[in-house]
């Protein structure tokens, strides 16, 4: 989309994810804005040799996103990539 707020948020999420491991990437990024909260949905692709567990990655990223704005609720799928 050409929504400036969404594009800026995507860049922040990329920084968060890359800050954990520079090899991680995100895709299918989308945002659903609401009155009480905003869902931030995306997938994280990680290499098979990643030592951090998928669940730990998701929890860490969710925590960091909530620090950006308390209304953000991250909905994340972590998957291995080739």
Describe this structure in words.
With 82 residues, the protein is of the alpha+beta class. The chain contains two helices and three strands. Strands 1-2-3 form a three-stranded mixed beta sheet, covered by helices on one side. Helix 1 (4-20) crosses helix 2. The mean pLDDT is 96.
Give a summary of the structure in a few sentences.
The protein contains 2 helices and 3 strands, in the order αββαβ.
Biggest sheet layout: 3 strands, mixed
| Count of alpha and pi helical runs | 2
Number of strands: 3
Helix-strand string? HEEHE
Low-confidence stretches: none
- The proportion of residues in beta strands is 25-35%
Shape: globular
Protein topology:
Elements: H1 4-20, E1 25-32, E2 38-47, H2 54-68, E3 72-81
Parallel strand pairs: 2-3
Antiparallel strand pairs: 1-2
Helix pairs in contact: 1-2
